[in-house]
Every structure is written in structure tokens, then in C-alpha cells.
Amino acid sequence: MMDLLRFSTAGSVDDGKSTLIGRLLYDSKSIFEDQIEAIKRSSHNGGEGINLALVTDGLRAEREQGITIDVAYRYFATPRRKFIIGDTPGHEQYTRNMVTGASTAELAIVLIDARNGVLTQSRRHGFIASLLQIPHMVVAVNKMDLVDYREDVFDEIVEEYSAFTSKLDIDNVVFIPMSALAGDNVVTKSENMPWYAGQTLLHHLETVKVGADRNVIDFRFPVQYVLRPNQNFRGFAGEVQSGSVSVGDEVMVLPSRKTSRVKEIVTFDGGGESANAGDAVTITIEDEVDISRGDMLVRRRNEPITSNGLDADLCWMSEEPLQPNKIYYLQHTTKTVQAFVTKIIYRTDVNTLHRQAADTFELNDIGRVEIETSEPIYFDPYRVNRHTGCFVLIDAENNRTVGAGMIRGVARGVPAVGESDARDRQASPNVVWEGLNITRKEREEKQGHKAAVLWFTGLSGSGKTTIARELERRLFDRGIHTMLMDGDYVRHGLSGDLGFSPQDRAENIRRAGEVTRLFYEQGSVVLCTFVSPYAKDRARVRSLIEADEFFEVFVDAPLEVCQQRDPKGLYKKVKEGKISNFTGFSAPYEPPQDAEIVVKSDELSVDECVEQILKAITDAGIVGK
After folding, report:
1. Which CATH number is associated with domain 439-619?
2. Tell me: the pLDDT tens digits for 152-186?
């Protein structure tokens, strides 16, 4: 059975999305002759051949305006793979359609007009692809024929867009120079660009790895309908969102938490022994358990999160602005509940990726919010499971979809941008805050570099301190004013009276954050190495620092690698029972969901990690090149 790749296209107006898809279908011989004849009759281009854009521009309004308005889907296949294309609009007015079209894609094609270079919409589409956790991106630099197939034009776009995508959560970005109109590097290799040694677009689409983002472990089956055709049959219909299930498996029903075993798995073609992600089936169970639409079947030892407080990324899709505390309907899998946005944490500037304070969201705004629902829902974080980690918001007054969201986790009261300030915090009685004698800006100008905080977080043994120490040495040798705040330093003095309960951990980070802020205001680049397991505590420190000058550095290493390293012998003591309440074992660790920098210390050397961080703060203008 051939693989299926779902991919979407996006770009600014007139970048050539529809023409590219038309060329892809035409040159791969995926259009019937009668369709070609109909398109030729509709081309109206003075006899200059077929207008390939009309292959997907199906609406009359699209053909009249020459732009894509709705999402157009096309299916085609080659001997190697099957494809479903979602051609999404490029006009900013229809950004919401791009979110819809790309929500199920495994690959995104972002078109850039070689004549215009990287535009705001190019960045917006890359950011949305990252937000939707699309694992693969192709940046198609189109209309190379109109810039004489110049390599330097292509290289300049690659450099600029690579700098932008390096800040996004996308691992695989491929750049292809092409001309959709002329057919260069779409299906066949271009003779006009001998300097390009990479793949054609079709070859890349046929060979890129698919299915890597699919969750095949966590069984999730939201119940869509209860079928009762007669007194002898009661089945629960729906789609397996992730994982798999077999006859005889033990399952648990949420929210009742009643358990039973799978008796039958019924499909359109009859009975089956198992069902996998994407299969639409009807499941019967051995026991009489009360199950309704919106309930979910899961495994007893592998449950989703249950909560009525959500921390989520939200794309606003309505011309009516978001109204915090207005009642909306939230639809998640097959469950619909009342909900309201309790807090707007920030709005994202898609050009700079900077976070901005906001009281509302307008059409096409994207940002982070906290939502409260009238009933608990059962979800996984979006990065773990795209199907159970997404939702839509519906206006309760007119039933229009107004927002699409990706769940980060449980709402934890993260401070909004600009919400917290050191002067607003609890202070000792009769203490008055006075401005600093010499401001941070004055110090930055004299020192020749900006102040910043690099907050290293990760499991014990991940390499936080080793990387930070080497980074500090490199910065110090370049004349940068630095300060290293290591967790052990603080525990030996400032927090020597604290233990390791959740409350003590929070107080430890609070104290460290306040001291960090003082060094930051003194104009230093402050490197802080703390396990800091709780997202809420890290967010509190973030709120003390200017948004553009706080960098959360997630030193990502698997627990088993950290145990093998065990530089301080702590894991050994944990296994011997000498340490309790240890992060990663008996105490939780909440990995960052939106860290500015992620270094995989199990894959990279210390020097490579340092270089990655140096590049990030250099690109951000903290230090000079």
C-alpha cells in the first residue's frame, strides 16, 4: 500500500501557488484530457497556451480576481506515492483559510516570489506552519525566470528566510529555486540553473519521510455516535484519533473512568480484529457502561490530561474582535462545551516573533491565551498529539467559527506580557522603590552590548552548567560583561534554608529571579543554570525582564542519557533511596513549550551547543558579530 502525503501551499498574492500546483499536476500527467481542454477554453490568454492556475482556481470569483480565495483540494498520485494538496490563499485577509488548509498537512510549501524576496506573508505562513507543528517545509523560490535564474538572488532569499526559520520549531526546511510557469525544477530538472544540485519538487515530495508526526502510541477514541439499531447491538462509532486497539483490549471510558474490554470492532466491510489511527470504526464492549457522544475511550494506564483550564496558542479567524470573558463554544474532538478566554498572555508579531501585550485579538492575530471551559475536556498537548491537542472556538450567538487553537497544556496562571513588574510585587513594609542611579540603557551604550538573561533549564545531567560555563568564557573573552548564576551557587547561600518541595523550589527560583534582574539592570548578560522544573516559575522570572532580552534555553537530553552521565552521582543516590522528590523521577519536570533556544545536548558537542546559542543572541542583536 502506497504512502499518502498531505501537503499545503501558501504564499503572498501572485507568488504563483495555483500555477505551481497546475504545473505539478500537468507535468506528472495527473490531469484528464477533457479537463485540460476545459481549462484551455477558460484560459483567455490570447492563445499563449494553457493557464495552469485554473487547475485549482475553481471559484468564479477567484478566476475573475486572479487570486485564490477558498482552500482548493486536489488529489493525485505517482507510482511512488499518493498526494492530497491543499492550495491555500495568499492574501492576508484569508490567513484563516491557510490555518484550515494546513491543519492536517505533513508538509508545507511556502512560495516566495524571487523578484520580491521575503515578505510579511512569507514569515506569517512559516510561523503558522511552525505553530501547527508541520514537520517538513519546502521554501519554493518561484519565478526565477524573471530574475534571469540568478544564483545570488536565490542565495540572498535562502539566507534571510533561514535566519527567520531558525527561530521556529521546524526541523526540516528545504529551499528549491524554480519557475512554475516554465516548469523549472517542479517535475523535471532545470537546465537554466546548473548551479542548483538539489532535488526537484516532485522528487522531494515522493521521498520525504511521512508519518513521523503521527502518534501511534496513545490510544484515543472520541465517541461520535451511539448506534442502537436493535436490542441486541449497542456500538460506539467514531474515528481512532491515535494509537491502536484490538479485540480483547482493556479500555477505560472518560469521564466515568469505568473499564471494560473490547468485544467487537465493526467496519464498513464487516468485522475486524484491530483498528489503527485514522480508521473509522464502531466498537462494542463487553459490559453495560453509560457512554455518550463526547466521551472518550482510552487505555487505563495511558490517559490524556483532564482539565477545564487550557494554556493554548490561538489563531483568531473572525472580523469581530476577541472578547475576553465572553462565552464561546469550544469544540474539541467530538465534545462541545461552553468556554471563555480568561487571559491574553501575549500577541505575536509574525515579522519579529516578538511578544506584545494585548487586550484583544483582531482578524488573523496569533498569540497565547488561557481558556476556562464549563466542563473538563480530555486532551494531549498539541506537540504530542495533533488530533487531541487542537480545538475551535465558535461564537455562541451566530455559530460561526472564530478561532482555532493548539493546546500547550494546563493553564497555570502564566503572567501576561507587561502584567508583572518588580515594583508591583510584595515588598517589605515602608519600602519605596526608587529608580536605578545609572540606567541599564546608559550601561549598554558604554559597554557596547545589550543586557540579556539566558535562562538554562533542563534535567540534572543535561549539560546546562557545562554549556553555560563555556559560553560565559567565550563571551568574557570578547569583552562582554557577564554573570553566571548557577543553581548550586544559590543553594549554597541565598537559598540554603530551602528544601525541594514544590513550594521551596518556587521560592528558590523567585529569589534567583530577583537577583538575576539586578545583574540584568547592571547591564550584564546573565547566564542562569537552574533545573527550574515548573513552567509557572520560569514565566515569573521572564516577566521581570524585557521581552526581547530574555532567552529560555532548553537543554534537551533524554532522561536515560542524563542518568548515564550522572556528573554529581545524584541519580545513583535516587536509585539507592537516599534522595526523594527528585526531578524526573518522583518530582515532575515541565519542559518548555516555546523556548527561544533548544539545544539537544545528546546529539551536539558542547562547542556546537555554544555556537548555536551564540548565533541566536547575535542574530537578536544582544552582542555584535
Report:
1. 3.40.50.300
2. 999 999 999 998 888 887 878 999 999 988 889 99
